[in-house]
Amino acid sequence: MRHRLAIVLAALGPVIGPSSAQISVERDAARQVIIGDPSVVTCPAANCPAPPHPPVLSTQVVYGTTTKGPEQAEWLSSLGLFVKTGSPDGQKVTQYLGAVQAPGAGTVWSLNTDTVRNGLMGGENSFGGFVGSGKPGAPGTIGEKNGTIGYELDFTNWDAHSSPGKGPFTVGQYVHAQGSFTSLSAIYFDAHMAQNVPAWHNGIFFNGDAVVEMNTFMDATRSRHSLTVAGHHDVGLNTTMANADMTAVALRPGQTACFDGRNRCITWKDGRLIYMNGQGVPVFSVDEDGNASFRGRVRQNVR
């Protein structure tokens, strides 16, 4: 039998701004819909704003602390969906997050996660029993075998092989864009670190013989540059840790390798290895039999 319930979610601790929210709940058996404006005072774990910033307001708050021994798994929430029906265009989704940014609105996030390793409860801006942003613990007090993982994606395929243009569409993460304007980047990294130390040892790390079969990176787009290296580096491409019989760079006939932007290039074309000067004029070539041709003179022992 369907009935309406009015529930109040009250903030813990002292009142800062609105202390509760009247939320309409539609409940039918195990189904419910919660509709309400954010008004519950919240101190988000790992991201509790400090004065003079105002507190965070939420529509719903779920908070907990682990209490069991080291062998007992403890999850704050668990969502599961057993999919037995559907079609290629049918949407069967365990959890959906959506946000619409209206004209004149501020910055918006559809999903924002924060993970802190070696943090203690509290901090200057925590209140009401929440862990708050936390404060640093003594370095080295978490065992090396105890990892810290911001996000884990486990993917199991018990069905069929898949490759570009063949087999089912099976991907660990799918980034899809649409609209009328070009956005900055599909994936973007930055860091704000203390003590002048880098954030990551490796930006992206593929580890293990069974991880990738064909291409660790595959570019099938029409971008102007397939790979651009900027910044400050000792080596642009390092293959010294790979097997010695690997082909470090593979080019097809007619493609060029250049030493001054797109000038002063070498290429393999018409059965010859050719060097072209800054004006694109071939000045040296050698064929399969070792026959060499020079546009200028050949000199010996001249620097």
Key traits:
303 residues; mainly beta; 5-stranded antiparallel β-sheet; 12 strands; signal
Oligomer: single chain
Coarse morphology: elongated
What would you report as the Rg, rounded to the nearest angstrom?
29 Å
* Proportion in helices: under 10%
Give me the count of strands: 12
Tally of DSSP helical segments: 0
Unreliable stretches covering 5 or more consecutive residues:
1-27
Order of helices and strands: EEEEEEEEEEEE
Largest sheet: 5 strands, antiparallel
Largest beta sheet: strand ordering = 8-9-10-11-12
What is the strand and helix layout of this fold?
Blueprint: E1 3-10, E2 20-28, E3 31-35, E4 40-42, E5 56-58, E6 119-120, E7 135-136, E8 256-260, E9 263-269, E10 272-276, E11 282-287, E12 292-294
Antiparallel strand pairs: 1-2, 2-3, 4-5, 6-7, 8-9, 9-10, 10-11, 11-12
